[in-house]
Design brief:
Length: 205
């Protein structure tokens, strides 16, 4: 499923790069959603991106972590694993942009696009499964997942409060929190194993 999402996102994003009408039709514009009931934009905005770098980063991260999370879901939930993974991805996408909808539904000039919220949900689901596994920043600096996750949440919260720029940090934050809540909600015993892993981590000091 991860590979299918990557392929679809790449194809549609490349089409949108070349055709502004496609981009305009799919982008998340809270005003149009509220005024015209164009609720589909909650989903379609997650399969288009601002530029090639934006697309590359999101799809690389998704491909790197998505397959592992799918494997865990398959092991825990059998044939339902794929369904739950879709719930994780699409739910992360939807939940991550609800705050933007509430905040900007009267602003016809606000637009948002990209799969960052959904990707954050997948990454933080991975961290619940493997909190001590190192995540490599820029492919060079290895940091335990739990440490990287805490830093990421703190940064997203701070930048969301600060405002400004073209990055929707609130979407990153809410997508990540959704990934944590859904994963533990589906398998509450993961919370115990997560805490036990953190205890092992504390023994290193």
């Amino acid at each position: 499923m991860t590979l299918y999402i990557v392929i679809i996102s790449c194809i549609v994003s490349f089409i949108a790069f070349q055709n502004q009408k496609v981009s305009h039709a799919l982008i998340f514009n809270p005003y149009l959603v509220a005024q015209n009931n164009e609720w589909y934009r909650f989903v379609t905005s997650g399969i288009i991106h601002a530029d090639f770098i934006h697309l590359l980063v999101n799809m690389f991260v998704l491909y790197s972590f998505g397959g592992v999370v799918e494997d865990y879901f398959g092991y825990l939930f059998g044939t339902m694993g794929t369904y739950y993974f879709l719930v994780l991805y699409l739910g992360g996408l939807l939940v991550s942009i609800v705050p933007s909808f509430v905040k900007h539904k009267h602003n016809p000039h606000y637009n948002a696009l990209g799969a960052s919220g959904a990707v954050s949900a997948v990454v933080f689901s991975y961290i619940i499964f493997q909190p001590l596994q190192k995540i490599y920043l820029y492919g060079l600096i290895g940091i335990p997942g739990i440490v990287a996750g805490v830093l990421y949440l703190g940064y997203s919260w701070y930048m969301g409060k600060k405002g400004g720029g073209n990055i929707n940090h609130d979407a990153h934050l809410w997508g990540a929190l959704f990934g944590i809540v859904l994963t533990i909600g589906l398998k509450p015993s993961l919370a115990i194993s997560f805490v036990n892993e953190l205890k092992n981590f504390s023994n290193y000091f």
